[in-house]
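Bumping with the actual sequence this time:
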Amino acid sequence: MPNKRDLRLERYSIGKYAYRELHNFCLQYPEKKRRLRELESPYKSPQITGMPSGSGPGDPTGRNAERASVLSGDIELIERTAAAAAGKDALWLLKNVTQGIAWEYMPVSCGRRKFYDMRRVFFYLLAQSKGYV
């Protein structure tokens, strides 16, 4: 994160590296949604690579269901935390923490300072739900 400053969340008992971990967890949100859509797709063709593949014990349907469960849990956690922290501006807060879109480029119903305070509360609530605080 060379051009991005870290949030200072010491008053919430969140250190620099814990914040970075939470921030990177949120940046994976679009990828998690994409992977969940792929797992929920009923049409999946086998990949033919020409290499032999092992036929170890396993249940590919069960593994996909477990992956989908973890992904949907992560997605729901981020969305629920944004709703708890921002209320009616949850969509804009979600765009900010998951895509890095700045306050200046969104039609938010509050001022800059209040928006970034909501962002700090979002990371505090996320840290609580992930067990960091």
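The tokens above came from a reply further down the thread. The longest helix spans residues 60-86.
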